[in-house]
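$ ./design --mode recover --in tokens.txt
reading tokens...
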């Protein structure tokens, strides 16, 4: 206990020393063919400010929405690529599924926000912006408006026409009960590595988790890698393994996008096995320490890995469609709607 307080004080002191730079990522992964930063420059020039202004207002009412939107982008990209399939009514993790894997639904308010955004965007630009791009922009703005780094989002994703099956969803998303040894193979299937895992897990600096997501660590007894006081508090919140209650993912600053999540891990106060084990596995531990000591470094690496994740399995050009309704495919058939590409040329989608 005394030692964990010492670590906390030391880390806090070092954090004060490192300057809180604006942290705009300079170092980006390669941009996938067909995506660009200027994709909607002529077809929807106000796109980014529409998204930013709308979310800014929504977050004043409910900051938890930011966590919900960030998580939707993660689920979208990990399951058959960032194609908006997570938004489809009928997808295994889609908005209408109540007990689909991974069991706990994504926040309904986040799905609603994406649909509201699309209506706003369509009102100004017509149906030119994909739902998958709206999800990617909303995730970035959730990070920024919670205090995290800004980064440029490559755009031009198109929406998928296939549902995510239950099996694909289960196979693509690591479980919170997984340790690093179990998670890395899942990530390597989509070319993400241990550094990406440490950086992206920093998304757990905001948001909440339900008892059932960490009951493996408190029942029947305390996971020995968990701090005793933290454990006592979790058992108060979740007296039984199936209690329907939630707790913050980052106890130090639950609604602020910062590097405190890594300080939690150093103090054995990470919530899930998949979190805490990052501090105990030799492949991930040193980066956890680096991020706990240097928020600027975390912000840079997070932005880098988010852009990488945001380009997984994207549909571009004439593939996929621009959905009229983010929750449903366009009338069974793939759209004949003309799209304007980044050079301003008309290209027929087929
Ligand atoms: C090893 C990979 C990951 C695992 C096992 C995992 C697991 C989970 C689980 C179990 C929850 C809580 C669900 C609940 O009980 O309500 C959660 C929440 C969350 N996750 Fe992850 N996650 C992972 C990666 C990510 C990534 C890459 C991001 C984004 C960059 C992310 C962002 C979030 C956010 C923001 C929440 C809070 C959602 C809310 O408050 O509604 N996670 N995650
Ligand atoms: C959660 O999903 C898994 C995998 O499909 C399933 O085995 C388990 O029974 C589900 N749990 C609940 C509480 O629905
Ligand atoms: C889904 O996975 C289960 C268990 O791995 C398997 O038995 C089943 O056949 C799969 N279903 C489909 C549709 O692939
Ligand atoms: C990770 O979890 C698996 C499955 O529970 C277990 O067999 C393995 O020993 C664990 N690895 C480490 C390094 O803890
Ligand atoms: C959990 O509690 C919330 C709020 O009280 C409720 O809306 C939800 O339906 C409950 N979920 C389950 C699975 O009982
Ligand atoms: C923190 O990381 C940034 C970005 O990599 C680096 O420029 C800076 O020197 C680091 N600060 C410290 C105190 O190590
Ligand atoms: C969008 O699609 C969903 C799922 O099919 C449907 O429930 C909803 O009413 C549709 N919304 C609009 C505005 O058409």
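writing sequence...
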């Amino acid at each position: 206990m005394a030692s964990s307080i010492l670590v906390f004080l030391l880390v806090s002191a070092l954090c004060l020393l490192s300057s809180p730079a604006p942290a705009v990522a300079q170092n980006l992964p390669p941009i996938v063919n067909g995506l660009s930063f200027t994709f909607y420059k002529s077809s929807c020039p106000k796109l980014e400010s529409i998204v930013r202004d709308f979310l800014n207002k929504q977050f004043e009412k409910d900051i938890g929405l930011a966590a919900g939107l960030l998580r939707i982008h993660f689920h979208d990209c990990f399951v058959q690529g960032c194609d908006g399939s997570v938004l489809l009514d009928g997808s295994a993790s889609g908005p209408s599924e109540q007990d689909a894997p991974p069991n706990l639904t994504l926040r309904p308010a986040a799905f609603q926000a994406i649909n509201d955004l699309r209506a706003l965007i369509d009102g100004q630009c017509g149906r030119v912006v994909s739902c998958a791009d709206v999800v990617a922009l909303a995730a970035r703005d959730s990070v920024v408006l919670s205090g995290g780094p800004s980064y440029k989002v490559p755009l031009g994703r198109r929406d998928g026409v296939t549902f995510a099956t239950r099996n694909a969803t289960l196979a693509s998303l690591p479980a919170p009960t997984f340790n690093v040894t179990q998670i890395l193979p899942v990530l390597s299937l989509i070319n993400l590595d241990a550094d990406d895992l440490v950086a992206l897990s920093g998304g757990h600096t905001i948001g909440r988790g339900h008892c059932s997501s960490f009951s493996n660590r408190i029942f029947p007894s305390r996971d020995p890698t968990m701090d005793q006081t933290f454990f006592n508090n979790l058992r108060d919140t979740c007296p039984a393994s199936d209690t329907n209650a939630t707790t913050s993912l980052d106890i130090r600053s639950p609604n602020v996008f910062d590097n405190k999540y890594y300080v939690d891990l150093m103090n054995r106060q990470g919530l899930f096995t998949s979190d805490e084990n990052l501090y105990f596995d030799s492949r991930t531990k040193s980066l956890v320490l680096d991020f706990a000591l240097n928020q600027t470094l975390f912000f840079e690496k997070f932005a880098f890995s988010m852009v990488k994740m945001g380009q997984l399995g994207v549909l571009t050009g004439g593939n996929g469609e621009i959905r009229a309704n983010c929750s449903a495919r366009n009338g069974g058939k793939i759209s004949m709607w003309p799209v304007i590409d980044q050079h301003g040329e008309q290209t027929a989608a087929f």
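exit 0
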